[in-house]
């Protein structure tokens, strides 16, 4: 048992959670696509396959990666030891049990109950270190995790009472909360990664005021979804999302360096961040009656923004924190391209052909399978 706790994979949070999250991303989307096209007969999980898909992508896949990143970043921010050994194993098992519960013949109430503990436990694990170290500038991260727990509660309640509208509101709120977190983290790490990756003299750091405005706008967007305010077009929400899109665009312009297009670990992050801008502007267009389907904006955020940033980030962080050269293999670079194509298919091809869903799912799952093929050994082995 001591050997298990001392294994390299449980030395820091990014190792098990990046593996688990990437594996789940590939499997969950493949299952969803097979069901959509009638290739997956049999009993459906509690609430149906749509409820499962809605819940598991933000609260299963995304939260695993968020946990891995924060459990690795917070020790760097605070100088305190990171979660490892049996406490980390316990948190991983809480996440895993919640995923497996959907497959088990257990009462509905118990199934929904086991989904609840993960986010509060994650908030406690990182919050105690942030508070102990007095890192108040990182308290917004805790706020976002707490609000995500609330969004999950709304989603689970919607499943319990068979209210599809409530489920949808909770899930969309969660997606924009993830966007808020990526706005904060991305504003810190992308300029730093660009500076380090291109050997520039100084990083182009995120400006404080635009960053705070973006965070506030993202939180308001999440709350507007939770409150059902995006069910019908509203001019003030068009202005809110439009402001977010413009601020994201200004960030991209400010960060741009022609050298990034020669470095896969940089252009993958840069293009994925651009999908946050696309999603915000698409929501603004929907609110003024130009965009026909709100779901296109949602999937621009979910597939291109969240999926793309996650894949690029875990590829970069995994290399850096295991002491490897920051040079991904050609297989992983192909994965970056596949994820980008998956987003293009889901947003721009689906309105014209249902075949776009199949292509998007295929490329998404393929991207994460390629990541696992090259990174499983890296994440399981000791630091170089």
TrEMBL record:
Transmembrane stretches, start-end: 12-37, 57-74, 86-104, 110-127, 139-159, 171-193, 213-229, 235-253, 265-288, 300-319, 331-349, 355-373
Stored Pfam families: NnrS (PF05940)
Domain of life: Bacteria
InterPro entries cross-referenced by the UniProt entry: NnrS
Keyword annotations from UniProtKB, A to Z: Membrane, Transmembrane, Transmembrane helix
The protein's name in its UniProt record: Short-chain dehydrogenase
